[in-house]
Every structure is written in C-alpha cells, then in structure tokens.
Specification:
By secondary structure, the protein is mostly beta strands. It has 2 helices and 31 strands.
C-alpha cells in the first residue's frame, strides 16, 4: 500500500518480479486468482488504477489555514526588472508525425511539471526589495567549471509551511503582476493562491474553485490558468480582488495533468495534457469553448506539457504515460513527430533556449533526465543523468549567463545542469527535505529566481 505522508513507489523491475512471482506461485499451488488478474496485462492495469485512485483521492485534509504573513525587515526599495525566462525563436519545425510504441504501464505518479510560463521578452519595471548584495553579472560562466563552485548560495528560504496535513503543493508558476513579481501555487485540496516573493507574504487566502487537486498552473499576466484532476481548466483574472475564475469549456473525461501558456496570432492560449488521451489548445478569451484536440486522440494518457516557439511558430512538447516525448505545432493544431521515448511515464517537461537553439528537457519515472535539441534535423535525446529514483519536476532558465535545467527527484534532491555542456552546475539547491513536485524559475532584478512546491505542502524560494 501507499503512505500518503511518505509514498512508497516501487521500481518497474521490482513490480514485474512481484507479478511474475505471484503468477508462478498461483500456477504451482493451483490457487484461483480474482477475475481479471490472471495475466501480466491485467496486473498492470490494476496497479495503474490503484496508483491513480491513491493520488487522486488522498485522505481528507484537515481544515485549511492560510500562511501567516511574514513581515520582512525594513530596507530601501529601488527600481529593477522582473521577467520569466522564455526561449527565443529558433530553427524550423520538423515535419512528419509518427506513432510511438506503447509498453505496459506499471507505475503511476501525479507530478507537476514546471515550464517557462511567460512569453519571450517579458520585462517590466517594479520596486524590488534588496536581498543583500548587488545583482549578479550576466556574463557567461566558463563551461570548464561546470561542476564546480559557481558563486551562488544554494540555501533556500521557506516561503510557506504546510497549511494542512496531506496537502501537497502540486504546482507553482512565476511571473509579474502590475510590475511586481508574483508566484501562483496549486494544492492538493483544490485551491490556488498568490504570493509576493519579495515581501514573502500571501496575496490573499487560498481560493477553492476546483473539486480535486490542482496539478498545474500557468501565468501570463494579467491571467493565470489552473488545471485539475477534476477534469477542468479555469482562467483567473488576477486584476480582480480577490482573483475571479471562470471554467474554460466543458469538463473533460479525465484529469488534466498539465497546462502551459503561449501566444497564437497575438492572443494568449493554453495547451493542456490530459488523461483523456488528448493534447488540446484553449482560448481563455473564449471561456465557453472547449479546447480543440491537436492532431487526434492518442492511445495513452498525456502526463506533461511545455510550450515555446520554434522558427516563429508556437509549439508544444509533451510527455506521455507510454514514455513518448512528442512535438506539436500549436498554430497548425497538429502532431509533428515523436522525438523519442523513455522507459516509463514522463511527468516533467520544460523548454528553453541556448543561443538560437531551442531545447527541451524531460524527466521520467524511469529515473532518466534528458535534453532534446529541437532545432536539430533529427532531434535526439541526450541523457543528462540516470537516477535510481523518478524525476518529478523540471524547469529551464538562465543562471550566471548559462542556460540551465533544474531537476527535482524522488531522492528529495534539486540539481542544476548546464545544458550547453550537459554537466552538473554547482552543488544544486538545498533546504527542502521532501521531493519537489514542481519548479519554476525566472528573473528578478538581474538575479535568477527559483520557486518550488513540495510533497509535504511547503513552498521554497531561492534568489541566486
């Protein structure tokens, strides 16, 4: 069984051994098995349903409470800039969609992805409270030192403690509102909440408009979009006090695992990944319209999504329960190609840029963290690391002039990778003692800002 406070998630190989042993003993001892559990495929499906039910229906949480505001020490304000890293347009989109082979789904995990959630070139003035010391230079760090001391403080700051038992912070996003940085979070109790990362105070109480956990949030001022296990997307007007939300279209036939925002013909769109086997594009300006399916319905759940631009075209990259990493043309509403496959479900996806090259990163239940060069004629995955545990979350941004990826994994570690060299960058990030279910990053006043949400319900931040 699974403990909600400290879940046990068996490796696929261990589960297969367990199934083989059960089937062998049943055959040898002539033990009748329950209907539908007499073969490997039936066991896989039963395990998938058990994991899905466990993650979607945790124990009822205790009454929620908002985190008490934390008054920061007095200091002077000075003008600065806030932006969220987003990739620049790059090479041409490849053509030719193809199907990916599907293997047995032996593990399931509800993890939230983290993607660049603002659009290219977003940078607005704000009043920034100094975090001590001047902003770091944007000069590019030497790749020869990629695994050494990169001159940042890895220690994180607790933005919010758990607000109730068994209430994970599934999703986080970062952006700007009225010229000031803002963090939005989604939790297991179906609430979303805004936070000011500078004053370290909540901007209002948690707002409950979803019936089930909020697995993903996207932010593109002045709106945000939340995605939930209840099968709905909601668009939030962040200029209202408190923020007001409207359901987008109809409720889908499965939970929505991810949402990422982008722009098509000058309008903000949301791209969703869902358990109903679809990738859809939604138009927040037309809330009554259900999202349009990109391409066609697949034969697997879509577990993660990130958006970017490629040669001036808005694209999406998704991960599936079948392990496939797929590229989509959002503007043409079609599948482009399968980039490659992991050995298990892909729950973490993010996109960024190295110069004029657009790159994606993916993290999977198989423990592999990969990068993908989307501008290459035949994009192929490069393994950054192979963990003994699942990779839960990912983000891409810029640190000390280097394009980096940040990964969160089941060993409760947060690591940084230099995407140009494929090597670890610095010593990672420290502070949390539970796994990061979501990570987002951006820029505050020339400093790299990172925020993460965790299984124990905490929210952590870093200003690097």
């Amino acid at each position: 069984m699974v403990s909600q406070s400290r879940p046990v998630r068996p490796e696929p190989a261990n589960f297969e051994v367990f199934v083989d042993t059960c089937l062998r003993i049943a055959a040898e001892q002539d033990v009748p098995l329950p209907v539908g559990l007499g073969d490997r495929q039936a066991w896989d499906e039963a395990y998938r349903r058990l994991r899905d039910h466990t993650d979607r229906h945790p124990r009822p949480p205790a009454p929620t409470r908002s985190c008490p505001p934390v008054e920061p020490p007095g200091s002077e304000y000075e003008p600065a800039q806030v932006s969220v890293s987003a990739p620049a347009p790059a090479g041409a989109v490849p053509a030719g969609a193809e199907a990916a082979p599907r293997g047995p789904l032996v593990t399931r995990r509800r993890i939230i992805l983290a993607t660049p959630l603002a659009l290219a070139g977003v940078a607005v003035p704000l009043l920034i409270r100094q975090f001590g010391g001047p902003a770091k230079s944007g000069a590019e760090a030497s790749p020869d030192n990629a695994s050494g001391d990169q001159g940042y403080d890895p220690a994180g700051s607790l933005l919010c403690p758990p607000i109730s038992p068994d209430n994970p912070t599934w999703s986080v996003a970062f952006g700007a509102l009225h010229g000031e940085p803002v963090v939005i979070v989604g939790r297991g109790d179906g609430t979303v909440q805004l936070w000011d990362p500078l004053t370290r105070t909540a901007r209002g109480i948690p707002l409950k408009h979803h019936d089930k956990p909020v697995f993903s949030v996207g932010l593109s001022s002045p709106i945000a979009v939340s995605a939930s296990v209840d099968g709905t997307l909601r668009v939030w007007d962040l200029t209202a006090d408190p923020p007001a939300s409207t359901q987008l279209g109809d409720r889908l036939g499965g939970g929505i695992n991810g949402v990422a925002l982008g722009r098509v013909r000058g309008a903000t769109v949301a791209v969703s990944s869902s358990d109903d086997h679809t990738v859809r594009v939604w138009h927040p300006a037309s809330p009554s319209t259900t999202g349009t399916v990109l391409g066609e319905r697949l034969d697997t759940e879509i577990t993660s999504v990130a958006t970017s631009t490629l040669h001036g075209t808005t694209i999406a990259v998704t991960g599936g329960a079948d392990g496939a990493v797929r590229l989509w043309d959002v503007e043409a509403e079609r599948a482009v190609q399968v980039l490659g496959t992991h050995e298990a479900a892909v729950w973490a996806m993010a996109v960024g840029a190295i110069g004029d090259r657009t790159v994606a990163v993916s993290g999977s239940d198989d423990g592999e963290f990969r990068s993908w060069d989307l501008t290459a004629p035949k994009p192929g995955g490069h393994t950054l690391n192979r963990f003994r545990v699942a990779v839960k979350s990912a983000a891409v941004g810029v640190l000390n002039g280097r394009t980096v990826a940040i990964s969160g994994s089941d060993d409760n570690q947060i690591r940084i990778w230099d995407l140009a060299t494929g090597q670890p960058y610095g010593e990672g990030l420290t502070g949390p003692d539970k796994g990061a279910m979501s990570i987002a990053m951006g820029d505050i006043g020339g400093r790299t800002f990172v925020v993460s949400g965790h299984w124990d319900g905490t929210i952590w931040t870093w200003l690097l």
